[in-house]
Amino acid sequence: MASWRGMTNADIEGVLRVASEIHPDLPESASVFAERLSIFPDGCLVLALGDDICGYAVSHPIRTGHPPALDHQIGEIAPDADQYYIHDLAILPRVRTRGLGAQCIEKLLLVADGYQTTCLISVYNSASFWGRFGFIPEPTDTVLAAKIRGYGQYAVYLYIM
């Protein structure tokens, strides 16, 4: 049975394999995953089935309304970070529909508990999936809207209180 656990540096190769299958049009480099893991390990999880990585999640605090651009390093968590950001949740199709996405979101929302809101950029028309957990669209300014477009045609900025 697949289960979620904390990500390690040894998992990054497996994370890249999952990312290339799930997000072929939204590539991110190994250095981005390694950086997020080094600066906020509590927000980095992998879905492991034995030694096989079949999913991952990356999340971290940000300043409200300032999610990172796709495939960009952020350097550090801003000292004035006041919003939690779920950067990515990806699960291979062969292990979906087992409630594993919900398990991961529950874990991430526990980490996010100290923040007033949690946000994400929904991709591939997945806003309805996130809506099941209470996420709703958030209005964006011009700068944020331009950044969101970098995540693809169907990207939507969502948040939950």
Task: Map the helices and strands.
Layout: E1 3-6, H1 12-22, H2 30-39, E2 44-49, E3 52-62, E4 83-91, H3 100-111, E5 117-122, H4 127-131, E6 136-137, H5 142-149, E7 156-160
Parallel strand pairs: 4-5
Antiparallel strand pairs: 1-2, 2-3, 3-4, 5-7, 6-7
Structural account:
- The protein is α+β, with helices and mostly antiparallel strands and 161 residues long.
- It has one domain: Gcn5-related N-acetyltransferase (GNAT) (Aminopeptidase, 3-Layer(aba) Sandwich), CATH 3.40.630.30.
- 29% of the residues lie in helices and 27% in strands.
- Strands 1-2-3-4-5-7-6 form a seven-stranded mixed beta sheet, sandwiched between helices.
- The N and C termini lie far apart (32 Å).
- The mean pLDDT is 95.
